[in-house]
Amino acid sequence: MMTSMIENDSGWVVDIVLNPPSLQDNTADADRLKKALSRKIGVDYITVDPFVLKDLPIRLHSWDYRCRCVFFKSCGCGYLIEIMPIENPKPAAAMAVDLGTTRVVMEMIDLVTGKSLLQSVFDNPQREIGPDILERIHYADKPGGLDHLHHLIIDAINEEIGRICKKAGMDRNRIFLMAVAGNTSMTHLFAGISPRGIIREPYIPAANTFGAARAEDLGIHMNRSGRVFLFPNVGSYFGGDLIAGACFAGFQESKDISILVDVGTNAEVLLGNSEWLVACAGAAGPALEGGVSEIGMTAGPGVIDTVFIDPAIKEFQISTIDDQPPKGICGSGMIDLAAALFLSGMMDIRGRLVQDACGERFRNVDGIPHIVVVKEEVSATGRALTISQVDIDSLIRSKAAMYTILETLLQYVGIRFEDIKTFYVAGTFGSFIKPRSAISIGMIPDLPEETYRSLGNSSLKGAVRLLTERGTMDQVESIRDRITYLELNVNQDFMNRFSAAKFFPHTDAARFPSVSFRQQP
Predict the structure, then answer these.
(1) Closest by alpha carbon to 333, among 207, 419, 434?
(2) Of 244, 358, 381, 458, which sees the most CB atoms within 10 A?
(3) How far apart are CA 108 and CA 172, in angstroms?
(4) Beta carbons within 10 angstroms of residue 174's beta carbon
């Protein structure tokens, strides 16, 4: 039995007590409720869902004009989604969704208490069309392609809602809100909107702001009056997932300059504080996600996430997630490996494997140099896990792109790396990356390690925050409206800086003073 007291009055559920109608006050029931709710939540315009309006008089009268309201607001408009009795009300839940290109993470929230009820993760079924977003956008142009991609993700989410509800003992009709944070392309495909303009000059999306759509219109199986909020985009390559992350990091609350980097399909970067914000995005993701190497894979049990090489005896020390036998390597593991190879002298400043220094771990396969990371006898696959020179070259391009994106953004604003107070790293990549390794290969600036802070899945956490603190909506809109988006596709200086960054750690070693003395002869 639920309490009749609201435990989280800053959320999307509030209790309202009305003055009963009389001959002296013959205001319509809906107007009476909207006026009281408007005063309570500070929204001028409120619309009552038709399903609520249908039996509103009967319910209000039977509850002595005291009710619990489930509502939402977006773009200055309030939506009354459901009412229930204050005494012994039914559960009210919401779903936060991190809509990733590769994986989707969902978390069920109790709207009254603000507590998390259950979290789950599943592979994005659109991967069957193509692992990267570019393939999906091209597929969406084919007859029936857009509808197919839309239904793939909607059907998967509906299926997952069913599983979560069953496990949590929740009726899916008691889910009233959903907050979805994804990149611009994924948001378009979720909404069934063509993303074709995102990859074609002048690189603009069909829409940046989506508001709160009816779940029924999107095909989401939850409460029939429920609303689905899609975090707004800023540009073709800066999506709602970064807006959600910025809210969670608190960009709107501090005058200190911070930077937020989320490495996924693209590297998306936000720089600024409570007064100004500049954003950009660029291709730096595949190698940093572990998606280019033959043994590369996303983080999971048995995946190498840490590598250390004793520079004196060239002995490899590795660790895997959950301490399982090694079967592959993730992006953060690749960065660790590259840093270890460089600092031990097994790889030179150009990123070339040094055969003599690599010793018996050096192999030549079809004319391509390889380094053995895990020998056959200890590998989970029964085969040696090797990284090729081609893999390393791909990582070099990715790390150079990452550093160049950061450098170009700061140059545009006119500040130095040293002016950054906090450097946030988001996503799965951010959960495992070690700043020292990333600094050693010149992927991120040589700042004190305490400057760096991992946010984990900031996209999901931002969506959860929106569902538990209604003031977050104002912050979302404030952040969106204050961002200046820098389009790197037309930036002439980018390639010049990129070429200079394709060395370990950089052609200008003075930029990385803490690394220079670590380089082995």
Answers:
(1) 434
(2) 244
(3) 11
(4) 19
- pLDDT recorded at residue 520: 44
**Cβ(384)–Cβ(376) below 8 Å:** yes
Closest alpha carbon to 175 in 213, 207, 215, 206:
215
Q: What's residue 311's pLDDT?
A: 85
Query: Structure tokens of 40?
Result: 């309570």
- Per residue in 371-421, pLDDT (tens digit) is 999 999 999 999 999 999 999 998 999 899 899 999 999 999 999 999 999
Residue 517's pLDDT is 45
| End-to-end CA, the chain | 70
70 and 102 assigned to the same domain: no
Q: Residue 73: which residues within 8 A CB-CB, separation 6 or more?
A: 41, 43, 79, 470, 473
289/211 same-domain check: no
For residue 238, the 8-state DSSP code is B
Residue 83: is its pLDDT beyond 90? yes
**Is the pLDDT score of 67 beyond 60?**
yes
Same domain, 447 and 311: yes
User: 491 pLDDT exceeds 70?
Assistant: no
φ, ψ for residue 141, nearest 5 deg? -80, -15
The set of long-range contacts for 168-171, using a CB threshold of 8 Å and a minimum separation of 24, is 168/108, 168/117, 168/118, 170/91, 170/93, 170/108, 170/117, 171/91
Tokens of 189: 């495909």
**14-16-21 Cα angle (round to 5):** 160
- Report if residue 483 sits inside a domain: no
Cβ of 61: how many Cβ atoms within 10 Å? Answer: 12
Helix (H, G, I), strand (E, B) or coil at 163: helix
The reported pLDDT for the residue numbered 284 is 63
Within this chain, do residues 77 and 114 fall inside the same structural domain, yes or no? Answer: no
Residue 449 and residue 367 share a domain = yes
What pLDDT, on the 0 to 100 scale, is given for residue 519?
A: 44
Picking from 217, 239, 261, the residue at the C-terminal end of a domain is 239
Taking the C-alpha atoms of residue 317 and residue 307, their distance in angstroms, rounded to an integer, is: 6
Q: Are residues 380 and 506 in the same domain?
A: yes
Structure tokens at 467: 């569902």
In this structure, the strands spanning 316-320 and 303-309 are: antiparallel
DSSP state of 21: P
Query: Does residue 287 have a pLDDT over 90?
Result: no
Distance CA 343, CA 121 (A): 37
Per-residue pLDDT tens for 89-108? 999 999 999 999 889 999 99
| Residue 45 belongs to domain with CATH number | 3.10.20.880
164 with 21, same domain?
no
- Amino acid identity for residue 468 in this structure: T
33 and 19 Cβ atoms separated by less than 8 Å: no
Domain extent, residue 23, equals: 13-84
Would you state the pLDDT for residue 518?
A: 42
Cis amide prior to 325 (ω within 30 degrees): no
Q: Contact 456/119 with Cβ under 8 angstroms?
A: no
Backbone angles phi, psi at 268, to 5 degrees: -110, 135
pTM of the model: 0.88
Decide if pLDDT at 43 tops 50: yes
